[in-house]
Each structure stands twice: as C-alpha cells, then as structure tokens.
Amino acid sequence: MLPTDSRSLTRKGVTAFLVISFAGTWLWLLLARAVLGLSPLNPLLQLPGFCMPGIAAIAVRRWITKEGFADAGLRLRLKAAWRYYATALLGPPLILATTLALAAATGLWEPDLSGPGGIPGTKELVSVLGLMVAAVALSPLYAGEEFGWTSYLRPRLFGGRTAPSVIATGLVWAVWHFPLAFIGYVEFTNVLIGLAVWTISFQLQEIILMWLYQRSGSVWVASLAHAGNNMVLFLLLGEVLDEAKGLGAVAPMLLSLAPMTAICLCVVGGRKSARERRIPDPMPAGHGSGTD
To answer: What's the whole-model pTM score?
Structure first.
C-alpha cells in the first residue's frame, strides 16, 4: 500500500492533469470555433487541443508533483521493442482490411476488384502505404495524447490495476472527445447512439494501446498505433463507407468493433500466460503500479 503522502500527491497530480486536459482542450475548441471561426478539420484547431493531455502531463510532472519523467516511457527502445513497433504500424491497416471485408460480406459495400488477380488496384495500395508513412511521421504529435492518457493517467488510476484503470482511462478519453460531435468534427445522425458507439471504440482502443505500452515499455509505440488508427483505419473507413457509400459515421465504427474486440480478447486471454515475460509499466515503486 502506498504511504498516505504518496497517495495524496498522486491524487493531486491526477486532479490537476484532468483539469488542465479538459479545461484547456474544451476552452480552446470553443474559442477556435466561436471566436476564430476555424474549421474542425483545420490543424490550427486540432493541434493545440489534441496536444493538451501531453502538456498537462508535463506540467504536472515538472511543477505540481515534481516526480520527473523517469517513469514516462520516453525511451524509443527500437531494438528491444521492434516487434511492437511493427504491430503498431501494421495493426491499423489489418483492422481496416478486416472491417472492409465484414462490410462486403454483409452487403454494405461492394469492393472494386478490377485490379490484377481480382484484388484492389495500385491506387488503393498506394493510398494505404502513403497514409502509413504519414502515421509514422505524425506519431510524435499523437504522443500529445498518449503521453497524457496511457503514460501518465492510466498507471495512476486504481493503483495501476489493469482492468479498472483501463476502463476508467477509456471512459475519460471518450468523454474528452465528446465536444467534437457538436462542432462538426464528426457527425452522428443520432448523437446519443453515436457517442455510445464512440465510447466503446475508445475503450477497445485503450486496451490495445495499454498492451502495446506495457509490452514495449515505450510511449512511442502507443503513439504510432494511435496515429495509425486515425490516419489509416478511421480516415479510410470514413472515406470508403461514409463519404462514398453514405453509411454515416456509426456504421463503419460499429463494423470496426468486431476485429478490435477479437484483438482485445486475445490481449486479455494472453495476459496471464505472458505475465512473467511482460515488460512492466515504467513506473517507480513509489507509485505501486499493479497488474490485474
């Protein structure tokens, strides 16, 4: 059990982190839309708000709890964690392919099989590869979220116990995104249903990001996967199933839940057998990072 002073400092840090993350992002979105008139798709609107959790984590670590960055997972660990970098890079396009296959199997989408051997043509392949390269290039920007949610917040909730801390972090992460549904970033025909499905998606993504972070010991692996989810998986799902087929924002998201759920079940099922081989959270003993 953590000493009382340590628990109090952790609560103080988490509270400050949440206040800065939510107030900073939501107030900026309000200012950017209502006063500056920026489009929700404008990087000038997105970058300051979406980097706020990382800014909050830096501020808390440096000036509020003064705990420093030794446990932040900032090392690249390229040699030790290359398998997880590969997983983070290839996972989103594989989930995309599985989701599109489900859409085709259910009659919601008719793929263009005019390429050689009845497979999608060069244009589609180049688009996917180009977005994968973009995900690699933009992963430092997505560290603005992962440095906050997965590296700082998650290990400090519920004493770092995996199941409750992941559920809580996924819920916080989802609610933090909710204003985007009201400023045109994402458009749901039924807002309540849309937000509910979105929340489930965030929960599943957080399980995968947590696993990548724990196994690799590096926040950059989680940042690469996060970038791939946005730049490859959901961007192309929106383009293919929403913009081209008019299925709306919820249907592609619902379809993507199936492969993500399968991955999460594998993660949960494999945790006990892999427990001894797993690289633990890069948390100092004073924070009492737990497992299950």
So the answer is: 0.91
